[in-house]
Amino acid sequence: MTVSSLRSILTDNMRIISKYFSRQLVGIFVMLLLVLTGLAWMVQIMSMMKFLLNYGVNLTDFLGLTALMIPFIMSIVVPFVTFIAVIFIYNKLIADNEITVMAASGLSPKQLAKPALWFAGILTAMHLVLNLWIVPASQAKFYDVQWNLRYGMAHMKLQEGAFTELMDGLVVYVDKVSGHDLSQVMLSDQREGASWHTIFAEKGKLISTVRGLSIVMTNGSLQSLGDAMITGTFDTFDMDLNIDDKGGDSAYKVRRIPTRTLLESVLDAPTAKRHKTVLTELANRILMPFMNFILAMLCLCVLLRSSLLRRRASVAPAVAVGLMAGLMALFMSGSNMISSVTGLALLGLGQGIVLLIIWIVLARK
After folding, report:
1. Which of 36, 182, 223, 327 is placed for a possible disulfide with 204 were both Cys, Cβ 3.0 to 4.6 Å?
2. Contact predicate 200/220, CB 8 Å
3. How many C-beta neighbours within 10 Å does residue 238 have?
4. Cα–Cα distance between 74 and 130 in angstroms, integer?
5. Per residue in 25-60, pLDDT tens?
6. pLDDT class for 133, splitting at 50, 70, 90?
7. Are 153 and 57 in contact (CB under 8 A)?
8. What is the pLDDT of residue 155?
9. Burial of residue 112 (number of CB atoms within 10 Å: 0-12, 13-18, 19+)
10. Long-range pairs for 109-114: beta carbons < 8 A, 24 or more residues apart
């Protein structure tokens, strides 16, 4: 048999082994991802039940709102699912002596790790796409829908001929409701505590502004009690119906900012706290996906190297889990402590050094 024939046989066998490993990895990964994402989604549903109870949101809109959290949930659990899938499949193959037989036939740990590394590399690329584009878009949509359900739909709770408390200290009475148009409006506002306002108007109209939900009233009178009593009449009066500022700093949610805008804001963040928040988010978006590859390689290194030493093979999964927990804790701590672009670069460099060390251990003969 010639050398070329042996190489051809080895190549064909490796292709078969890669398909065998990949099929099992994909199957367990998809199952675990669905289970863990589903569980996290159920927890999110339970934490947001107030939208069903307090805001009169219908079930379809509520489920649609919580579904917008799924991409963000997936972006968090994917590295852990990748690690669990690799450790489960390779530990099973080691327990069944399949890895031992393959190693005895001349396959090195690096060759045995190749299917899982390709798998982790593809997941890293998909995770980057998820973090850089899909999650920010879904989070922006989530916060917009959440705001509209909480405030933009408040007019749906107004009942004709009844007093309606929209929030603590804000009570509205409406004689007739026709879509966004109201007639014979009485509004009592005691949200400021120290002062109160009572407004009567012939007509009102609900509108959505950058400040939030507002009511524009016409032909009415106003009584205000604070440091002094003020009374008067008006032709038109515009009043906010909620405290929350839709576009202000209190509504700043870094997860919904597009990645390109986030990169531009690194240089012109208005405060040191905002600058640190932006850098932490960039670390999670750009560097977190590479933890898929690092954790998979770490798991492979521990399992495949220990499989050659049978006395240590039984504790290898526990060692791999401990090292994974330590690496993730270090990464998360490092990302939360970043205060400059240099810190972000150093965190990425640290990932590269860890990856190189693991690769050297895995690939050595």
Report:
1. 182
2. yes
3. 13
4. 9
5. 999 999 999 999 999 999 999 988 877 776 667 788
6. very high
7. yes
8. 45
9. buried
10. 109/300, 109/301, 109/304, 109/305, 109/308, 109/362, 109/363, 110/362, 110/363, 111/14, 112/17, 112/300, 112/304, 113/297, 113/300, 113/301, 113/304, 113/362, 114/14, 114/18
How does the average pLDDT of the chain come out, rounded? 85
Distances (CA, A) of 1 to 11, 13, 36, 45: 15, 16, 51, 64
8 A C-beta contact, residue 143 and residue 72: no
Mean pLDDT of 328-342: 94
How confident is the model over 125-130, as a mean pLDDT?
A: 97
Residue 313 binned pLDDT confidence (cut-offs 50, 70, 90)? low
- For residue 116, which amino acid is it? A
276: Cα within 13 Å, side-chain hemisphere? 8
Q: How many CB atoms lie within 10 A of CB 340?
A: 12
pTM assigned to the model = 0.78
Q: Are 266 and 75 in contact (CB under 8 A)?
A: no
- Record the tokens describing residue 133, joined without a space: 């584009």
Check residue 251 and give its pLDDT: 44
DSSP secondary-structure letter at 160? B
**If you average pLDDT over residues 242-256, what whole number do you get?**
58
CA dist 90 and 320 (Å) reads 12
What is the Cα gyration radius of the chain?
Answer: 29
By CB atoms closer than 10 A (0-12, 13-18, 19+), residue 272 is exposed
Please choose, from the candidates 291, 292, 296, 309, the residue with its C-alpha nearest in 3D space to the C-alpha of residue 89. 296
Pick the closest to residue 298 from 124, 126, 117 (CA basis): 117
How many other C-beta atoms lie within 10 A of the C-beta of residue 270? 9
Q: Which of 156, 153, 158 is nearest to 185 (CA)?
A: 158
